[in-house]
Design brief:
alpha+beta; 6-stranded mixed beta sheet; elongated; transmembrane
């Protein structure tokens, strides 16, 4: 016996689809595209350049601010403390030749010990030597501020890399009582205090 039950009421159907089926039905253009490798390379290149620039600029700026003191348009590169019995010298590095790599230094006497001179009277002659150059101060000299111009070769550094390169030179500064280093006996040395400066608008 077969019993069939037919209902006159209308029926509504609800269909459910899985997420996989929905994604598979989307167009190909709407799917997430893989990242562009060219864009990644450009970003990495820009980031590398920024890091390289900061790595050079920041240390150089900090070094300049810490080691150089500005005095009346000059930058103090080197200085030694002075004592009452020392000759004080002021040395200015005025220029450098890009052909011979020689520094031009101008040295003047700022102060003389009291045991050698008093006011305008010189008791003992003395000799000041800066590198290969020398100046002899005697009672016959009326101007004790006569500049001594010396050329010193550059030991290390390239003008092409200014101001990022480091520049080194060797300068020997001495002072002795007397007019000549060859007097048949050991010359009496005089302590020397040196202040080395360079103009802010350094001339290459």
């Amino acid at each position: 016996m077969t019993i069939s039950d037919r209902s006159n009421a209308s029926s509504s159907s609800i269909s459910f689809h899985s997420p996989t089926a929905l994604l598979s039905s989307l167009p190909e253009d709407s799917k997430m595209a893989p990242p562009d490798k060219r864009m990644q390379l450009q970003l990495l290149t820009i980031a590398g350049l920024v890091v390289f620039f900061l790595g050079i600029a920041i240390p150089f700026t900090l070094t300049q601010a810490a080691s150089e003191t500005k005095v009346h348009g000059y930058q103090v590169l080197y200085s030694t403390p002075s004592k009452p019995d020392t000759i004080v010298l002021n040395t200015v590095i005025s220029s450098i030749s890009t052909e011979t790599y020689e520094l031009v230094m101008t040295t003047t006497i700022v102060d003389i010990p009291k045991r050698l001179a008093s006011n305008d009277t010189l008791y003992k002659p003395f000799r000041v030597q800066v590198g290969p150059g020398a100046i002899v101060i005697t009672p016959n000299i009326t101007n004790l501020k006569v500049p001594l111009i010396t050329k010193i070769p550059l030991v290390k550094g390239s003008t092409a890399w200014y101001p990022f390169d480091k520049y080194l030179t060797a300068v020997e500064t001495e002072a002795f009582v007397g007019t000549s280093p060859f007097m048949g006996q050991k010359a009496e040395a005089i302590d020397v205090a040196v202040v080395v400066k360079t103009p802010e608008d350094f001339n290459w």
